[in-house]
Amino acid sequence: xxxxxxxxxxxxxxxxxxxxxxxxxxxxxxxxxxxxxxxxxxxxxxxxxxxxxxxxxxxxxxxxxxxxxxxxxxxxxxxxxxxxxxxxxxxxxxxxxxxxxxxxxxxxxxxxxxxxxxxxxxxxxxxxxxxxxxxxxxxxxxxxxxxxxxxxxxxxxxxxxxxxxxxxxxxxxxxxxxxxxxxxxxxxxxxxxxxxxxxxxxxxxxxxxxxxxxxxxxxxxxxxxxxxxxxxxxxxxxxxxxxxxxxxxxxxxxxxxxxxxxxxxxxxxxxxxxxxxxxxxxxxxxxxxxxxxxxxxxxxxxxxxxxxxxxxxxxxxxxxxxxxxxxxxxxxxxxxxxxxxxxxxxxxxxxxxxxxxxxxxxxxxxxxxxxxxxxxxxxxxxxxxxxxxxxxxxxxxxxxxxxxxxxxxxxxxxxxxxxxxxxxxxxxxxxxxxxxxxxxxxxxxxxxxxxxxxxxxxxxxxxxxxxxxxxxxxxxxxxxxxxxxxxxxxxxxxxxxxxxxxxxxxxxxxxxxxxxxxxxxxxxxxxxxxxxxxxxxxxxxxxxxxxxxxxxxxxxxxxxxxxxxxxxxxxxxxxxxxxxxxxxxxxxxxxxxxx
Length: 595
Prior knowledge:
- This protein has 24 helices and two strands.
- It is mainly α and about 600 residues long.
- α5 (about 95-100) packs across α6 (about 105-115) and α10 (about 210-235) packs parallel to α20 (about 455-475).
- It folds into two domains: about 1-90 and about 130-340 and about 380-475, no CATH class; about 495-595.
């Protein structure tokens, strides 16, 4: 079986037009997400769901109409599927007695909060584990998109040329975003794209509203550039000894232009992380650079590649010195007063620990932190904590021990494949592991103090990195010479004598498998339709709510002295927003206030 998998992962496996369509759709998705502010609005979430759904449908159509190897199996599917089932289970209305058994804290708190309302006896006969199903459904739609991209990349991007194109696309998109961030810093007016104002940033983070979210995106982009750079260097020096004259000759040749482009992307990306003043991004990048550099220099075949990090650091330093070193220095100096810097976040973690003890197994519902945490908030900060500023703590709070363990198991599977890839340096494409590991390590560290993985622009990139690590691990044990192996399965079938009974079973499977794939396609299409419909309703509701907020601002500026027509306009749009999202508590609350 191992020999069969390895051969199918080789370049002799023909690609189809469906693969090409998937590749272009994925490139479009990767370019759209960072330019759309990292995907923080309902309209951009709808685009992400539409594109990711189209990607997975194209992949399933390929399985039906293109004769080739079946889906790639990995144990990573198990914790991923289990996590999705937990979230779905949180949305299922359950009898009150069952909720009291599996999550007594949920049953007790909901009874306490709703027990004195009219009709409470009827309303409390059944309940969901999620304290805010509207938020849980919204987060589930996005997680399904991330999972779809992960599965498709793992199954489609097994060809070295295709992997390199994907890495180049991620690196170039990251480079464009870095140039935009530098331009907004040097010539900007404090607004994103020079005309979108935000109270959370001054345009130092490119199109991203939050500089920490930008730091995660750029660290992943640097990782993609480093991954492709390592592959190209391995290809360039695969048949020669790495010495200073050989390196200099190669780097000054015309074929090395792409190498310098990748180094420039890495340098500019590192510079913009500092300029954006994200402490978490800076620290995670520096730790990842140190670890990756030590790892590269420890490998006997890669000792001559340590200059990559030096050149990247020089490019970043030059940019920082030109733009402004004082601001970066002042920002980093604040890390000396750790208690003051992270005091608020540490208090959030302590409060979340108390909340977790109330709902330890299945959590409060994915995406419910903003509505549950205020009940346990003991800080003096009056602002609403929309996120826990720690992905691990928020995952434990919202999905409980089962959800957190499933994510940990998924991480262990990815980590074991990373180690396996590090040990396999026969093939040039496997050298991409160093850049992929750089990006994922930076995310793991930064997630201790940020919520960047809640943005699809970052989460989908992480999913792609994980899928590529799994895909590269399947090349383990192949010889350095590529494109020579033939699919063993076809040879085995041709040389093996088949009995009559075996022929019958083979014919039955040949009929059954396409039927199963059609059923899966229909099921996936139904899920996609559900997700797209929900996202479309959220987009329309948000558009109406934007009209509400605009009208509200006009009335506030005049001390709420308005005409009947103005109040009718306000209430009509608030009502329309609630019609498209009936269980949105924000829309419902403020509609009653306006009335």
